[in-house]
Structure formats: C-alpha cells, structure tokens
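Re: that backbone. Tokens:
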C-alpha cells in the first residue's frame, strides 16, 4: 500500500532541507492568510489596522487604550509601513512537528491575523529557539544566540507587555539553575480593567480555552509531554496558563504563544508512535519511507477533525462583519453613502481601515467608565434597542446608512421605517464587491427576501441587504446576519 504522506522520495525530498521546509511553511501561511476572511476579535482591526490607517492617512478611530497611552505603537507601525507603500504607489522542524503546526485548526484560524498576539507568538517561538540554542553552543556562538534571544524577547514585550510572563519563566529558570521554586508576581491586569469586557472561571484555560485550541491534538500533546520528559518546556505552558488563569478576563488569543509549543509535543508523540523502540541512528532515517499504520490513522484522524474546522471558522463563521464593510466601501466609492451609524455592540466591524473613505461614522462606545455599575452605550442599546435609538436620533441628525445585526432587527424595524429608512436594495454578488469568487467557497453570502411593510406612511422596504454572519451564537443572541438600512431616497438611487 502506498503511503500518501510519507512515500519514498516525497517526504525525504521536501523535509531533508531546512530551506525547503521554510519555503513550504511560508507558502502555506501565505495561502492561509488569503483564506482567512472572517471576523474573530475586534483587536485585529481596532488595535492594529485602524491605528496604522490613522498614522498614514490622517483619519481613523483611536480607542480609549491609545488615548490613555497604554498601547505600544510598534505593532501598528508594521502595517503603517504597508499603508505608506500603498499610498505612495497609489494603488528548522521535523516532519511530525511541521504537520501538527499546519493542521491544527486554531493556528490556521488565528496565526495569520493582524492581532498583536500573532506577532507575539512568532517572536516568542523565534526567541525561545535562540535562547535554547545558546545552551547547546559554546563561546561566541552561545553569547550571540543569547543576545539575539534577549533582543527578540524585549521586542515581544514592547509589543505586548504580557509577553513578560513567558520570559520571566525562562529567565528565572536560567538564573536559579532549574532548582528553586518560582514565585508569581503581581502582573498587568491586576487593576481589573480587563474584567470590564467579561470574566471566566479560574480553570477556563485548562478545561475549555486551551483545550479547544488544541482540540484533537490534546491527547497527543499530553502523551508527548510525558514521553519526552522535557519538564522545563512543558512547565512553560503550565506557567503561562496558570498566570493568565489568575486574571478575570480571559481570551483564546492570550495564550496563543504557547500553542506552537504544545503542538511540538504532539508532533513528538507521533514520532514516538512511528518508531517507539528508537532504533540506532543508522536506521532512524528509514521511518521517512515507511510509517506504521497507527501513525497513518492518527494523522488522518487529526486532518479530518481539524481541517474542516479550520476552513469553516476561517471562511464562513462571522464573516458578515467583513463583508458589510467591503460593500459599504464600494457604495461609498460610488457616492451612495454619506454617513454610517453602527447600531450593534461596539467594535463589531472593521472601521476606516477597511472603508478607506473619510466620512462621518458613529459606533456605540464601550470605553470603561471610572464609575462602576454605569452601563456604556453598547450595554444600554442591548437592553432597549428602540429606546436607545430614539434618544440618539433625537439629539443628532440621521445618518444615510444604519448597520445592525439581525438579532436586533425586529426591535428596530418600525423605528427605522418611521425615520424614512428602508432596507438597502438590489442584490450584489461577491465579485461585484471586489471580493474574489474563490473566497465564497461553501458560503451563502446574501439572502434576498422581498418584504412589504405596512404602516408608517406605507413605506416599502426593498429587498433585504443581508450579509450572512453566523450559524450559531458565540457570547450573545444569535447574530445570523448583518443588515444594512439606508434612507429611502438613497435606496431609490
């Protein structure tokens, strides 16, 4: 039987050279980045692209963190350079570990996004590589590796100060010779500011968060940890999870830097399964040409359980937030949009960095209040959508377009129609929005529903402009689609 992933001449040819592995990894992540078209976390836009857009083009929204000076500009400057170019032009890993890195669903879903956590993860892995290389070298080579590792660690901490959690562990182990106990320090987040955005129980990372990120790799990672007996490296994972568990506000992306390490242990477990008796070095290369059936089945299981998840989360789930901004950007370019109001939880969509037109826009503010128990605009809107919108429209002029989730549409439909809004008109396919057709694999992008609405001057709501968003709810009511309403006279043009 031919072994599809380790047949003679294929795996040995590709993975015998570090340069080939590097080129293949680069090509894979490039393709990965093109396939990620969904919305994961507001920070991938609001704390990177939006800031960079403001630096280069002079307009863009800065959230409260930037106004209080608690964010580093190093990460947005990476994208500012790309924006500047756009404005100017106008326009080393064994097979098993490599396999685990590219197949894991969360790495595929998150690592290529513009989150500072993604850059932190890359810098952490590179820094750990040079730090550990120093212990295996001597003389000038060891010193140079250590200096480079320290520079990368400093850069990672400058981008995300919480990266110090990782490097504190590494530094303390090096200082005390791996024998003394470790002490927890009072770290960033003790002020409880992050708790404003929600809290989880202390064990969340262990029982849900990190376990979900590993998914079916979890038992392989655990087996690899115990089989390898690399307790200091596995201890780093436990340290990071433990420290972050002390903080009330928890997110998947916070522990992304240790995910590649856990996947390395999963790769090690596959290597052990392929050759459990560890034959002498002269025979060890033969496993590239022959792999036991149990490893083939394990690899097939990991592919089947991770690839569909990676594609669904990257191409389908929560893509409405991205698609609606592509649509509004095109409409704005055609002169059909004058101003936009987002009646949805704060930071639910990208902003100027995607629209790329300097026109009035308004979203619901969720800046943490210095006085506790006072709900922000986003919370007040969710408690009473129609009442909040009535107060807002009473004190300000009407925008030309309103964007909202379908979950609030029922509460706001009559209000919007009474203010001369109708649901945006004709259907537009992805290619007309400037979005390549291949990005719509497995996707129902638009649902066109002709509706006649009675009352309120018998206004007619045209075909609903709906952008599919999600099949299931995440942390609120099901936000199945994103809907765009526009003033009736604009909808008719």
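Recovered sequence:
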């Amino acid at each position: 039987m031919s072994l599809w992933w380790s047949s003679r001449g294929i795996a040995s040819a590709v993975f015998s050279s570090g340069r080939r592995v590097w080129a293949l990894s680069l090509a894979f992540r490039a393709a990965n980045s093109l396939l990620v078209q969904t919305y994961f976390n507001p920070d991938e836009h609001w704390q990177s692209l939006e800031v960079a857009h403001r630096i280069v083009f002079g307009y863009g929204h800065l959230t409260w963190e930037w106004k209080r000076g608690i964010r580093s500009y190093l990460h947005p400057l990476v994208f500012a350079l790309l924006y500047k170019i756009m404005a100017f032009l106008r326009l080393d890993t064994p097979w098993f570990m490599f396999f685990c890195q590219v197949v894991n669903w969360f790495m595929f879903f998150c690592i290529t996004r513009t989150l500072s956590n993604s850059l932190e993860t890359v810098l952490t892995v590179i820094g750990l590589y040079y730090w550990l290389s120093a212990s295996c070298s001597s003389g000038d080579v060891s010193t140079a590796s250590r200096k480079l590792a320290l520079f990368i660690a400093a850069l990672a901490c400058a981008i995300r100060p919480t990266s110090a959690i990782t490097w504190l562990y590494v530094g303390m182990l090096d200082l005390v010779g791996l024998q003394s106990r470790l002490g927890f320090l009072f770290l960033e987040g003790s002020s409880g500011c992050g708790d404003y955005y929600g809290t989880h129980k202390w064990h969340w990372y262990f029982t849900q968060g990190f376990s979900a990120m590993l998914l079916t790799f979890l038992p392989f990672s655990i087996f690899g940890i115990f089989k390898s007996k690399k307790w200091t490296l596995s201890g780093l994972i436990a340290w990071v999870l433990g420290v972050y568990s002390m903080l009330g506000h928890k997110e998947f992306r916070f522990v992304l830097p240790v995910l590649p390490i856990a996947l390395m242990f999963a790769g090690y477990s596959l290597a052990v399964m392929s050759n459990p008796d560890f034959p002498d070095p002269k025979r060890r290369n033969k496993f590239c040409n022959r792999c036991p059936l149990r490893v083939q089945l394990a690899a097939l299981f990991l592919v089947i359980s991770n690839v569909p998840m990676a594609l669904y989360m990257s191409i389908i789930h929560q893509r409405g937030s991205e698609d609606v901004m592509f649509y509004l950007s095109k409409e704005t370019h055609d002169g059909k949009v004058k101003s936009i109001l987002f009646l949805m939880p704060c930071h639910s969509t990208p902003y100027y960095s995607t629209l790329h037109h300097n026109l009035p826009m308004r979203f619901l503010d969720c800046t943490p209040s210095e006085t506790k128990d006072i709900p922000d605009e986003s919370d007040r809107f969710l408690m009473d959508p129609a009442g909040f919108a009535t107060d807002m429209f009473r004190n300000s002029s009407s925008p030309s377009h309103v964007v909202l989730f379908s979950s609030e549409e029922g509460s706001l439909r009559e209000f919007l129609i009474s203010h001369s809004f109708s649901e945006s008109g004709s259907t537009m396919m992805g290619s007309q929005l400037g979005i390549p057709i291949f990005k719509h694999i497995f996707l129902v992008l638009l649902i066109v529903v002709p509706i006649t609405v009675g009352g309120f001057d018998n206004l007619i709501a045209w075909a609903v402009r709906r952008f599919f968003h999600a099949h299931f709810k995440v942390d609120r009511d099901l936000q199945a689609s994103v809907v765009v309403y526009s003033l009736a006279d604009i909808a008719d043009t």
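The two ends are 64 Å apart (CA to CA). The CA atoms of residues 409 and 483 lie 8 Å apart.
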